[in-house]
Amino acid sequence: MAFRVLSIPFAAVMIGACNLFNGRCTYEVRSIQLAGRASQSGTQIAAAEASLSEQRGSLQGGSFYWIVTGSTLKGHVLSASLKDAQNPSQILLELPLAPAERNEIAQGATDSRGGADLSGYYDLFSVGRGIVELQTDLSIPVVVIPLAVTGSENWARPYCS
User: Fold this and answer.
1) pLDDT tens-digit profile of 2-51?
2) Are 52 and 69 in contact (CB under 8 A)?
3) Cβ atoms of 145 and 37 closer than 8 Å
4) Which is more confidently placed, 134 or 60?
5) For the whole model, what pTM was predicted?
6) Which of 40, 55, 96, 126 has a 20 to 30 A CA-CA distance from 136?
7) In 3-state terms, what secondary structure has residue 121?
8) What is the pLDDT of residues 69-115, one digit of tens each?
9) Is 13 exposed, middle or buried (0-12, 13-18, 19+ CB in 10 A)?
């Protein structure tokens, strides 16, 4: 009987620690999702959505995905960039424009494995300072899309019981 009572906690520890020993419980992840809109005279002229995910621990890295749309502006955007609202003169990331045959203005992804430095983005986004800036050839030369947090998950260990 004593063996059975002692074996239950031991089994629980071994099953839970199993992920620790096989390398699946040695890193953490966090993510944040964003969306924003720009309007002129009450009419939406552009929208943006973005997602950032990061890993730390035995797995290091991060990835950032974005899409910018706006049928009114399509074909008139000269450049698109991600910026800090408190320092709009500095471009954090150039967002390449989509080809003319595509519906979106810009869409893409980048990650730290490819050389992108995404450090600080989560902190910037979580306090509402991320913006997408569009330079146009229209009477509105600059369109700013403020990015608001639509969802987030702070550091968590996947596969850990």
Assistant:
1) 444 443 443 444 444 444 445 678 899 999 999 999 999 999 999 999 99
2) no
3) yes
4) 134
5) 0.83
6) 126
7) helix
8) 999 999 999 999 999 999 999 999 999 999 989 999 999 999 999 99
9) exposed
CB neighbours (10 Å) of residue 136?
21
For 108, the 3-state DSSP assignment is strand
What are the structure tokens assigned to 131, written together?
Answer: 């913006």
Nearest 5 degrees, angle CA 81-CA 76-CA 86? 25
> Where exactly are the structural domains of the chain?
2-156
Of residues 152, 117, 131, 129, the one with CA closest to residue 33: 152
Q: What percent of the chain lies above the pLDDT cut of 70?
A: 84
Q: For residues 66, 125, 148 and 52, what is the CA-based torsion angle, rounded to 10 degrees?
A: 30
Evaluate whether 129 touches 146 at the Cβ level (below 8 Å): no
